[in-house]
Amino acid sequence: MYQNKIIKAVQLIKADAQLSVSGEDIDSIVWENGEAPIAKADIEAKIPEAEQAIADEAQARIDLKASAKAKLIAGEALTEDEANVMIGG
User: Fold this and answer.
1) Structural domain of residue 65, as residue ranges?
2) Per the structure, how many domains does the chain have?
3) What's the predicted TM-score (pTM) here?
4) pLDDT tens digits, 8-42
5) Where are the alpha helices (DSSP H) in 1-89?
6) CB of 51 closer than 8 Å to CB of 5
7) For the purposes of burial, counting CB atoms within 10 Å of the CB of 16, is it exposed (0-12), middle (13-18) or buried (19 or more)?
8) What is the maximal distance between C-alpha atoms in the chain?
9) Strand, coil or helix: what is 4?
10) Pair 37, 28: CB distance under 8 Å
11) Could you tell me if 64 and 56 are in contact, meaning their C-beta atoms sit under 8 angstroms apart?
């Protein structure tokens, strides 16, 4: 699952920010619905944290899928999160 690091960085500053961005180009940010712009320097400062959060979320999904697979093989019940990851949810 692809996550945009620019959008993630903005969300780390303001979780409900409304914006769109073209690719990974910070200069292409369009602030939607009257959203107050966040300074480019503030967003850039959050990019390493955003990249780590994206990597952590991806690893957690991999780990959850492995746990679900192991439980299926052993005939154990899955958690809702494990079931969701197995069906692509």
Assistant:
1) 5-86
2) 1
3) 0.76
4) 999 999 999 999 999 889 999 999 999 999 999 99
5) 5-13, 40-74, 80-86
6) yes
7) exposed
8) 53
9) coil
10) no
11) no
Segment 29-38 long-range contacts (CB within 8 Å, at least 24 positions apart)? 38/10, 38/13, 38/14
Query: In which residue are the tokens 């409900």 written?
Result: 16
- Listed in sequence order, the residues at least 6 apart from 35 whose beta carbon sits closer than 8 Å to its beta carbon are 17, 18, 19
Query: DSSP class of residue 41?
Result: H
Tokens of 3: 């996550």
- Please tell me the total number of residues recorded for the chain in this structure: 89
Please state, in angstroms and rounded to a whole number, the distance separating the CA atoms of residues 61 and 66: 9
Residue 80 carries which side chain, given as an amino acid letter? E
Mean residue pLDDT across the chain:
92
Angle between helices 5-13 and 40-74 (to 10 degrees): 110
